[in-house]
Amino acid sequence: MTVHDGVRRRAYWTSQLDEAHEFMMHVMKHPVIECGEELVPLGPAAAAASVEVAFSTRPHAQGLPRLFVLRQGQIRGFLKAAQAMNRRGWVLKVEDGFRNRTMQKYIGRTPAVFDAILKKVLWELDGRMPDPAFVFKRLMTLSAQMPKIGTHMSGSAIDISVLDRATGAEVNRGGPYCEMSERTPMKSPFISAAARRNREEITAIMGDAGFVEYPYEFWHFNSGDAYERILRGSGAAAQYGAVDWDQATGKLVPITEPTQPLNELTEIAAEIQASLQRVYKQLAPVAAQQGAAPARAWPVR
């Protein structure tokens, strides 16, 4: 990578995250009239429709099981998209669905995710140490920090990958699920032509099924919530808002203070220090082999 290319990538990353933050501010103000539709498991729905769908087997934040559900009104569209992908020779793989408060609070604080985010922040700031408020701002767009802007908490968003039906290999979209780089935005100029065509085709399939793509993550799709209303330019209130879900009874209760942060700045500050310590430990053996002391900051590419 040339110096010029690195500067261009960094400028693009910063501009996209700033745009995403502005988008989140609009979501915070968008009206929601919760319709109360139940959450429906995607696996049984796909099986009943004889549609091939795959699901992530990785545990969620805090080791919790993933919750592969959507609202009742979205199931028809979900199955339509999955069927279209099967006809194309693909398999829709659901990476993430509903998130409860614990999942949403800690998904950005799992060591691997937080370390990746801090690395990108340090790269963005050219190695300067960020304050907790700036890291929180970036976390708002990379792992929603309020229920109001976290549409996984509305049960109206899914994160997806796409597999080749014959081989099981992941379809090239320019990076894997949760890629944390300048390739992450849907229309990133830093991906291959083939990856761009795949993104466009997947987006078209999801769009035909009623889902709208989130511009800043190539894997995230919504319908019926504030993201969709804003991205379509509709002034209508969202019908799906952040809820607490009782899995035993199926009861949904709207979250009463959805704009309250799930993490405080003191918690973010503690995560920054813990992340730096993890990196220091990783670098120490390498530095010792080279006869040098490791720097107490993240290496910036």
Any overview of this molecule?
The strands form three sheets. Strands 2-4-5-7-6 form a five-stranded mixed β-sheet. It has a two-stranded antiparallel ribbon with strand order 1-3. A two-stranded antiparallel sheet has the order 8-9. It has a single domain, classed as Muramoyl-pentapeptide Carboxypeptidase, domain 2 (2-Layer Sandwich). The termini are close together. Strand 8 (243-245) and strand 9 form a beta hairpin. Helix 3 (75-88) crosses helix 7 and helix 6 crosses helix 9. The longest helix is centred in the first third of the chain and has 27 residues, at 3-29. It has helices spanning 3-29, 42-48, 75-88, 101-107, 111-124, 132-142, 193-208, 226-231, 265-289; strands at 39-41, 53-55, 69-71, 90-96, 157-164, 212-213, 220-222, 243-245, 252-254. Residues 292-301 have low confidence and may be disordered. The protein is α+β, with helices and mostly antiparallel strands.
